[in-house]
Amino acid sequence: MHDNTKLVEMRVERFVRERLVPALYRRRSPLSAHQWVVPGEPVPFAEAVGHDYEPVAPGTPWGRPWGTTWFRVTGSVPDGWGGEGTRLEVVVDLGYSDTQPGFQAEATAYRPDGTVIKGLHPRNRYVPLAQAAHGGSVDLLLEASSNPDVAGGGAFTFEPTRLGDLATAGDVPLYRWRAADVAELDEAVWELHQDVDALVGLVDQLPPASSRRAAVVRALEDMVDAVDPDDVPGTAAAGRAVLRDVLAARADATAHRIVAVGHAHIDSAWLWPTRETARKCARTFSNVLALMEEDDDLVFACSSAQQYAWVRDSQPELFERIRERVREGRFVPVGGMWVESDTNMPGGEALARQFVAGKRFFAEEFGVEPLDVWLPDSFGYTAALPQIAVAAGSRWFLTQKPSWNETNRMPHHTFWWEGIDGSRIYTHFPPADTYNSTVSAEDLARAESQFAEKGRANTSLLPFGYGDGGGGPTREMLAAAARTRDLEGSPRVELGGPHEFFRDAQAEYPDPPVWSGEMYLEFHRGTYTSQARTKRGNRRSEHLLREAELWATTAAVRSGTAYPYDALEEAWHTVLLQQFHDILPGTSIAWVHREAEQRYAAVADVLEGLVAASLRELAGAGDQRIVFNATPHAASGAPALGAVSSGGAAHAAPVVVESGGDRDEIVLDNGIIRVVVDGDGLLASIVDLRADGREVLPPGARGALLQLHRDTPTQWDAWDIDEHYRRHATDLVSADVVEVVSADPARVVVRVERSFGSSRVEQLITVESGSDVIGLELDIDWHERQKLLKLAVPVDVHADRATSEIQFGHLHRPTHSNTSWDVARFETCAHRWVHVGERDWGVAVTNDSTYGHDIGRTTRDGGGTTTTVRLSLLRAPAYPDPEADQGTHRLRVGLVVGAGIPDAVREGYRINLPLREVVGGSAPEPVLRLEGSEAVVVEAVKLAEDRSGDVVVRLYEAHGGRARARLVPGFEVEQIVETDLLERPLAEPRALVDADGTLALRPFQLVTLRLRRRHP
After folding, report:
1. Whole-number Å distance between alpha carbons of 299 and 325
2. Is residue 477 helix, strand or coil?
3. Which of 200, 662, 689, 946 stands 20 to 30 A from 96 (CA)?
4. Is 228 a catalytic residue?
5. CATH 2.60.120 applies to domain 1-208+220-232
6. What is the pLDDT averaged over residues 857-881?
7. Which residue ranges does the record assign to the Glycoside hydrolase family 38 central domain (predicted)?
8. What's the confidence (pLDDT) of residue 98?
9. What is the overall mean pLDDT for the chain?
10. 254-523 topology per CATH
11. What one-character-per-residue DSSP string does 329-349 give?
12. Active-site pick, 377, 486, 779, 781
C-alpha cells in the first residue's frame, strides 16, 4: 500500500489550524479597557492604581520603546457561561507577533488589591477567571512593558541616550492593543489539541517504515474523520476516543528516561536593562505559581539569588508565595550562585563569592542549600570551577552551552569534571541541546539519539519552559509531558526536580568517564574583549574589594575600628551582579554597559573611601611617609599585606639612557635589562643582562607592535572573534612622536604617539631601577568600526605550551595545532598574566584589565621557532551596541624578562595592586604573615560572614607544586580552623596539619581558614 503520510499530515495540520484552534474557546465577550501611560521609569502598583485612566479601543497604538503602560480591564461574565466541560478565562492580546516570546511586550496581571496573579506573554495570554473575578465581575490591572522586539538581531533604534531618560527613546508606539475578553475554554477541544500535537510530533520522529508510525498516521486520519468540522466542541470527545489506543501504547522497556524540570532561563541583563529583568522575574515566577495550582506535579528550578532578591524587594507578597512552594520542594532554588555568572573572567575570590553570597541568601531566605551548580548558558567554563564549587559544598554541575561548539563535540553527557587541583564534580549536559525545551517530540527524540552514555546509563535531564521573559513553563508543555510519560516510540518523560535527577543519575552511573581541565567554548571568543570599560571596572573592583577588606580587617584587629560589613556586602553584590554572563562578557545593549560603568564608579568611590579611612586609622598621626602593600608578596621594602615607614628598599642601580646611533634609537639600561626603542617607537631589542645577555626578541622581530585586524564575525558581533580575522592585519608601525619624557634615575619613560584610521594611541614605555619589567601604558582614543586591536610580543623561545593565569592557579595550553581541539582554541582567556618559556628561562606578560589573548608558535627561516603572545585590547562590534568601546581607554601591560612562574604570579598582583602612600606616625604590623614557600599566596583577608569578628583567610598554592607554609597571625587567636568557602568547619582538615597554622598544600589547592579571635 502506498505511503500517504505527507497528505495525512497536511490534512491534520489544516484541521488544527482552521477547525481545532478556532474552537478552543466556545465564546468570547469583550471587556472594557482603559490605560495610563507612565511618563518615565516604571512605578509600583500603589502609585499606578490611583491615576486616571483613559479609554482604549482595539487597534489603538500603545507603548513607546522601553515604556510602561498600565491597563485597567473591567467587565462582567455573561449569564450562563462556565458550564460543565469549560473553563472561564480572561484572554489578553497586547499586540503580540509570531516571533519568539521573551522579546516582545509583556504584562503583569494584578488584582485590585495589588496582589500579583500571573504574567502575560505571547504564548501565555490567559488569566484564570477564578483569580480575576469578584462574583460575576472582572477587574484587572495590567502593568505592560513595551520593550522593543529585537529577537531578529537588528540594531536598537530605540534606546535612551541617558539612563532613565525615556523621552529620548522615541515616541512612536511599538504595539497595538487588540483585545481583552472573557472567554470560555472548551476543555475537550483543548485536550484533543494536545493529543494531536503530541502525536503529530511523534510521527516526525518515528522511522518511516515502522508499523508504529503507520498506526499513528491512521489514527490521526481517523480522528479528523470523527470530528464534525461544523461542531468541533460537540465531537471532540469522539476524536479523542479514536486516538486513545495509540496514546495508551506503552514505551519500550529500554526507552530513554527523561526527567523534565520546569525552567525559565532569564538573563539578568542582555537586550534589556536590569530594571526590566526584575519585572521579567516577577511575571515568570507568578506564572509558575499559577501553573502549580493547576498541576501538582510541576517542579520548577530557578537559579540566581539576585533574581529572588529583586522579587523579594519589589513584590513581597509574591515572594512569600514562592517561599511556601520552596518549603514544599516544588519551587527549587538551584545553582547556589548570586547570578549565573561568566566563569572565565571573574577573579578567583569573586567566583568564590558568587557561591558565598548565593548560598547565604538561599539559606537565610529559604533554609535550603542548593547542591548543584546551574550554568546552562555561560560562555565556557574555567578549569578552576570544580574546586571552587566543591569547596562551596556543591556536588553536581549542569550546563548546556558546550553543545554550541563550532568544531568539536563534547564526548560525554554525564561525567566527572576534574579541575586543576584534582577536585571532581559530577556533571551532566542535557543531550536535547536546549535549556528552553517545549517538551516537543523533536526535543525528546534528540535527547535519546544523542545521549552519549547509551548502554551504560539511561537517564537525562530536560529543562523546559520559555526563557528571557517568555513566561516559563506552560500548560501545553505539561500536557506534552503527561502524554509522553509512557508512550510507545518516545522516551519516557517524568516531571521532577534537578536534585532528584542527579541523585538517580549518580546511582545509575556512579563511575562515568573523566573530563579534565577547562571546558572551552568553541564559540563566542570575542567575549574576552568586548566592552573594555566593563571589564576594566570588574578588574579594578575586584582588587579594590581585596584592599578594602584587608585594611578594614587590619584596622578592626589593630584598633577595634568598626568593620564596614554592609558597605562591603553591597559592593560585592553589585560586582557579582555585573559578572552575569551577558554583562561582563560585553554582549548587552549600551544601556546595560553604561549602567555597569556608573555602578563600577560608585563602587570605586565607596571602596576608595573605605581604604582611605582604614589607612588613616592604621597610620595614625605624624609626618612620616608610609607605604602600604596589599599584594601577597613583599614589594619595595614593604612586607606582604603590610606597610613600611619611609626609607623602603635599598637603592638599586639607576636607569641609564643612551643614544642608539644613527637609527634614532633610545637605549634604556638598568643593569638588569637593556631595552632598545627604535625610531618607530617599537622595541628593537630586549636583553636579559642576568642571563649572559640573552635576547628576548627573535631575529628581525620587534616588540610591543600594535596590529589592527578586520573583525567581521560570521554570526554574533559582540560575541564572536572568528578565525578569519587573522587573514586581515595591518601592522601599526609609523609613529608620530618618539621621545624621552622622563629621565629620572629611578624611572625612564619613552612616549610614543601613533595615529591610524580615526584613532590615536599614546604609549608610554617605562624601565625602572632595580626592575626586570618593561612597562607599557597605552592611552587609546578609539574610533574604529568592526576592527580588532592587538598588541604583539614575539619571544625567542621554543614553547610547546603557554601558561595562563586563571582563578587560584594557572592552565597550560598548547601553542601548536596538532588536533582539532587545538585549532579551535585560537583565542583564549587569561587573568593577570601569561607566560611562555623554556626549562629555565621565559617571559611573562602581565596586564591590568585585559582578558583575551592568542599565543602561537611559528617556525623561522633557517631554523628555530618564535612564540608570540598577543593581547586583544579593543574591539568595535556593531551589535548589540553599535557604539561599543568607542572613546578613550587606558590599559597597562608589563613584560617581565627572564621570568618563571613565580615571577609571573608576583608581577601579576603588582600591576593590579599598586602601592599606596599615606602620611602618618608609623607603619602598623601586618595582620598576618606567611612563613615558608612563596608559592602559598593569600587571596583574601576579611572578617567572617556571620559577623562574629573572627578573621577569615583564603589562600592557595599558586605555582603548581606541593608547598608547605605556616600562617602566623599578628593578633591573639584561640584556634585556627579549616573551613569550606562558606566558613563552615571541615569534618577533617585537608591542608592544616598543625594547630600552630602549619599548612601542606597540593598543587593549586584552595584553603579557607577561620581564625577564632580571643576577645576580652
Report:
1. 10
2. helix
3. 200
4. no
5. yes
6. 92
7. 522-600
8. 79
9. 95
10. 7-stranded beta/alpha barrel (3.20.110)
11. TSEEE-S-SSS-B-SSSS-HH
12. 377
